[in-house]
């Protein structure tokens, strides 16, 4: 066998073991008995140890030295790009730094959850200092003299830079601020009223998942505290949650996760359990969840169909027409919490985090000053003051886990979704007629064929450019948002 | 660190990974999407590969050579006994034989399931021939010139021999045959009538699980095609099934699996994720499931309480008194299927399998003659002919998986349960008063303290002897069965 074949056999088992670790993660959030947490920690550590040992296995270095990528076909070259990148990254991080980071972030998550519950920023800051210091050390090891924050972004969005992200945000910011101000000055839509039993929400949410092309033969929908998608290939599971006063939380979390899940389910079977067998980047992943959730799921056409479904399930809930329902689904409202933000304001929440975490990593902002910096920026951007830490700098888990450079990929996903949506409208001219009948097949087939099936074959920006026919940028998203919300609010 | 400490650290991770593999097995039978089977096969193979590599890791041999067991305390010596035994077993099996066995038994299970569905013995025999040949080869490698079947029994019941089992069965056979004949000649009890909704069965079955001491903080009860218990320590899950015409199937499967599950949950926490942290043998495991299910769960006292619970849940179901209910629960009836057999006849089903599989392994019975041998023996033992293969030699999965030497441990469990029950009655004189109130705490605490908490600390027969105060033998079981069924049937 050639070195490439040996390497791909080895990678197959590594990928399979990574799937196993993912399955344990799913189990932990959905099925695991509460008292099993400590033992599960040991089990996870054991399998992570196996994965790490494989990533630094001496044979990896030998194979990589022997293989001449130029002799491989397009798929082989793409596989090698992923493998070389992961290997190089792993080898750059000293083993004791990786161990320290794992230990500190594990502790930090617990402290963060407690601090958020107690509204006690001071209880979280010491461990956050440790996390920031270790992440900066890691960033320096990865950056090889380059920009530390760039190196972190690259973990989630290969080849994206902080400078490009900053330029993107600069283009978005004034137009989103103006749109927000106009919309919030207008008459707000009516809110839902009534009671929406959890089991009936789950029934309709499973129907919505299937409506959006999620394959139940290769997946399942369960409840969890936080919605997520887990797994690749033939076993891709999603979760959602229910609030009996707010069924949109359940339905739109589901549609969002179905976007992630379909991406993983629809990757070409030839890439199963290979480095190409997962979504190519966080930004492209988020583009799928966002276009399912927003451009499709919150469209006038689709919400018209959903209104009928909800009337069938729940009877009268205080909304008298499809148009009124469409306005309610797309209600723009004040709020502190990123995950509850509407399409108009969501990216403003991200810009705040992007600027703060970039400053933390550059050493321009100290952890001790984080809360004040957050609160000042929030007041400046949103016009009202943060009332408590759980609505401010303690709201997100990310920093406690060491996820610096991750937040901007959410906005990148929105921007990519804007580009894809523009192209999709051209490719499927009767899209609204289809959506109005609850048919998403035209849209999801286009996304499958142009984005999802490729898995990791192309570079992130390349995937979007090939599918949308344009260099990715915020213009299509902004145009879409301005048109949609101007019409909705008559501004 | 000492070699013993190094070894125990290594074993800790091996045990944790084995738990992960077990969790995947549970998931496969309960939660896994149907279309994920192929991918799961790859995932399981990858983790089994990791486990195998650890079992033959060269460091294992070094540590074992360095450690002088005599310098260790009682627990350390017991750990070493398990580790040395597993290591010696692993090293005796040539790698290519292990690989072949894994491949052939995996294929055989599929062919068996299909053959059973098609009632087509001929379709199964060729692959069974392969399994038998490979198992005999494995047995010879393990036996080192000794008895092949003994070597197989030892895998499931350490230090038990076929000769001892044969002597045990010889003592049981005439008395069970006589008891069976007398009981079947008497008036049969009334059967249940009515419809028992699945969800209500599951509700009551979870109550029964908790009643028998199963800890839901470290476990859960789900539905699966076949009832089983899975996992050790703080994450021990059981399954059951429902038949809306026969709630006893659900309830007594649950109580049986709760016996297995409590054994695993109640092992001393000091042994968690070590070789002592699981049940010590199949026979001792089965003694726990059987005593929970039969001597406790099917007692007059407990069924009196259960009758009230079922009346509360299901209303009238055609049984008018506790006494009549007790007779119905303990109905002795003709039947082909081992897993549906009553206490009187169950061991006769095992003896049939024991003699046939022993002859197969000795080369005294050919696979081609298996069906005829089964059917002849069944007619002779039960007095009526097997009507179709799924009621005969195709009914059990065991041989397709390569489980030869496993069947007798079911009867051994019954025999052990008889010994433990005799001692338990002396230790807890008011046991029936407790059971009649639905309280099993007196019995389960005694079993926990005298059997379960020890995990793998003592040898199997030693556990039973320490707990029951007698050398294990069938007399207490037979005395119990004769007294119980003579009274029940007035014979």
From TrEMBL, chains A, B:
Active site: 257
Residues annotated as signal peptide: none
InterPro entries named among the record's database cross-references: Peptidase_M32_Taq
Documented EC number(s): 3.4.17.19
One Gene Ontology term of the molecular function aspect: metal ion binding
Gene3D superfamilies found in the cross-reference section: 1.10.1370.30
Residues reported to bind Zn(2+): 256, 260, 286
Gene Ontology biological process terms in this record: proteolysis
Keywords in alphabetical order: Carboxypeptidase, Hydrolase, Metal-binding, Metalloprotease, Protease, Zinc
A Pfam family of this chain: Peptidase_M32
Classification via CDD domains: M32_Taq
Catalytic activity: Release of a C-terminal amino acid with broad specificity, except for -Pro
Free-text cofactor note: Binds 1 zinc ion per subunit.
Top-level EC class as recorded in UniProt: hydrolase
Cofactor: Zn(2+)
Function: Broad specificity carboxypetidase that releases amino acids sequentially from the C-terminus, including neutral, aromatic, polar and basic residues.
Similarity comment: family membership: Belongs to the peptidase M32 family.
Name of the featured protein: Metal-dependent carboxypeptidase
Originating organism: Antarcticimicrobium luteum
């Amino acid at each position: 066998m050639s070195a490439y074949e040996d390497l791909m056999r080895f990678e197959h088992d590594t990928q399979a073991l990574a799937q196993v670790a993912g399955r344990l993660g799913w189990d932990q959030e959905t099925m695991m008995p509460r008292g099993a947490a400590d033992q599960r920690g040991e089990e996870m550590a054991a399998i992570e140890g196996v994965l790490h040992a494989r990533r630094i296995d001496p044979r990896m270095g030998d194979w990589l030295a022997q293989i001449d990528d130029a002799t491989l076909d397009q798929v082989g070259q793409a596989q090698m790009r992923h493998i070389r990148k992961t290997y190089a990254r792993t080898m750059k991080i000293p083993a004791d730094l990786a161990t320290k980071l794992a230990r500190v972030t594990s502790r930090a998550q617990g402290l963060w959850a407690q601090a958020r519950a107690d509204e006690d920023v001071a209880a979280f800051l010491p461990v956050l200092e440790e996390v920031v210091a270790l992440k900066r050390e890691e960033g320096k090891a990865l950056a090889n003299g380059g920009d530390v924050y760039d190196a972190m972004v690259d973990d989630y969005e290969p080849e994206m830079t902080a400078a490009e992200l900053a330029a993107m945000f600069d283009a978005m910011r004034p137009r989103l601020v103006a749109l927000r101000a106009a919309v919030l000055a207008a008459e707000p839509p009516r809110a839902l009223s009534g009671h929406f039993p959890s089991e009936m929400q789950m029934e309709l949410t499973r129907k919505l998942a299937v409506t959006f092309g999620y394959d139940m033969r290769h997946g399942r929908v369960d409840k969890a505290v936080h919605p997520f998608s887990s797994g690749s290939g033939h076993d891709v599971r999603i979760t959602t949650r229910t609030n009996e006063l707010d069924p949109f939380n359940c339905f739109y979390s589901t549609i969002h996760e179905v976007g992630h899940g379909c991406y993983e389910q629809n990757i070409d079977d030839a890439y199963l359990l290979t480095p190409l067998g997962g979504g190519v980047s966080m930004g492209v992943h988020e583009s799928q969840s966002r276009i399912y959730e927003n451009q499709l799921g919150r469209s006038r056409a689709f919400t018209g169909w959903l209104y009928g479904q909800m009337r069938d399930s729940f009877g009268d809930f205080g909304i008298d027409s499809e148009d009124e329902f469409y306005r309610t689904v797309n209600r723009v409202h004040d709020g502190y919490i990123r995950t509850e933000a509407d399409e108009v304001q969501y990216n403003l929440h991200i810009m705040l985090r992007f600027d703060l975490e970039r400053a933390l990593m550059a050493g321009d902002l100290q952890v001790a000053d984080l809360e004040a910096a957050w609160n000042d920026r929030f007041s400046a951007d949103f016009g009202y003051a943060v009332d408590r830490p759980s609505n401010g700098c303690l709201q997100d888990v990310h920093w406690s886990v060491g996820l610096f450079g991750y937040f901007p990929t959410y906005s990148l996903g929105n921007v990519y979704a804007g580009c894809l949506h523009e192209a999709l409208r051209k490719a499927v001219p009767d899209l609204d007629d289809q959506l109005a009948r609850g048919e998403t097949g035209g849209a999801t087939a286009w996304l499958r064929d142009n984005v999802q099936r490729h898995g990791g074959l192309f570079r992130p920006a390349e995937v979007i450019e090939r599918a949308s026919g344009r260099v990715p940028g915020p213009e299509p998203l902004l145009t879409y948002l301005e048109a949609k919300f101007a019409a909705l609010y008559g501004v």
